[in-house]
Amino acid sequence: MSENLKTIRELAEELGVSKKKIHYQVSKLDTDLIQRLDGTIYLDKSAISKIKASIGYTSPVELDTSGIQNRHELDSLLDTEKNKLIDEKSEQISYLKEQLNKKDDQLSIKDEQIKNLVEIQNQTQNLLDQQQRLALQDKKLLEEYKSEIKDLKDLAMPSHEVDKNAVSQSELETAEAQIKQKKWWRFGK
What we know:
Blueprint: E1 6-7, H1 8-15, H2 19-28, E2 34-37, E3 40-43, H3 45-55, H4 60-181
Antiparallel strand pairs: 1-3, 2-3
Helix pairs in contact: 1-2
């Protein structure tokens, strides 16, 4: 037999399809493309090509070259898109890192300000406590001074009143003596 002829089973194995599918395609072909020998059907090159075309088969070599070419084109397109995305993402990342650094700087400044405010608040609280303690001491001293003054007044009052009475009586006596000396008849003298 010729190398150009193939059986249905050989063609089905080569194409990777079932024998029934090949039988169906053979039934559509003209009888002059088919050869029968001892009950076996043999197909020539033209019948094989028509069957391949009708089932949409392309040769693996054609697929590989076109697939490789398509794959290279797709790879180059994907590489350019990937590079664009990487560039965009790296720009976004650098922008976000810059923003994070700014925020970190702001946070450190705010932390320092908060620390200063807490120190000032503590100092203010200490001063307020001191002021309250001093005010309380002043109040106690004032009360002590008031009680001492009151005690001194109580002690000084009786002697002072006696002096007043004494002064008053002596003044009264001198005033009476002056009045007695001034009688109306003595005017002429």
